[in-house]
Amino acid sequence: MRGRLAIAIGTDDRREHSSSPGPGEGELLARLQAGDEEAFACLVDRHHAAMVRIARGYVRSQAVAEEVAQEGWLGLLRGLDRFEGRSSLRTWLFRIVVNRAISTGLHERQHLPVADSELGDDGGRFSQDGWWVTPPVHWADEAVDRMVAPEVAARVRRFVAELPPAQRQVVTLRDVEGLPSADVCDILGISEGNQRVLLHRARTRIRQHLEQEAVW
Amino acid sequence: MVTTPRAKPDGHDITCRQAVALMTDYLDGALSEDDRALVEAHLGECEACTEHLRQIRVTVTVTGRVRDEDLNPRAREDLMNLYRRWQADREP
Ligand SMILES: [Zn+2]
User: What is the mean pLDDT of residues B18-34?
Assistant: First the structure.
């Protein structure tokens, strides 16, 4: 019974969370197109921090990432009349940011840097034969309540920030922003396969950190 | 996707390492019917991997709560100014 509870929290709750409360995207878009400043402010509150984080994966400094995110907003405003709603507004916005960040960071690195080490398998946890060396300590059910505390979120934010760049980008879009896999591949210009490997690695690392929080 | 396991104790068609390696694809619904069945059969018999899956789900949930982040008021003000300049240019 408790196991089922944890599983339910792991999926549905997140979806609810990622579609933040308040006006829906369609409504905000319509209001923005009609020149409503409040709608713009609302979108900024929702997406700016993520846009800066995404840009940061491509450029050298926080200041440049802020500039890139600003240019992203300008790109949104300028393209407002052309937006056809084929992707979500958020996906479109993130894609503008990535394109801007890539052209800004052109002399630094051209593509999302995916290091080989980020795609390799994680050794040590399994025996030669492929069984657990040390089976996972149980903490998932017990930890659910504790894990939702705000101070845990602050620590997880740090774990995410410390991930290798490509893993950080993917987990930010997938698990922090809650975007579907296809949108993330589209935004970052990576294959579904690579995206999932990077996500797998990122989740594995964050899980390890959480284990240290949960078990002592 | 799944390679032949080197050793398989009774009842297990895939190893724990393989089950864990497939978990992200499993959660994404990206596995073939066959692989999905293998993972589910493994999970049905392996408490360690089931707990691992639970932990990954908790991880995803917790990561999803990182989102709420206060925007620095200065950045917000800059963006609102950007909006007003754009609006002013737009309306003749
Ligand atoms: Zn197992």
Answer: 94
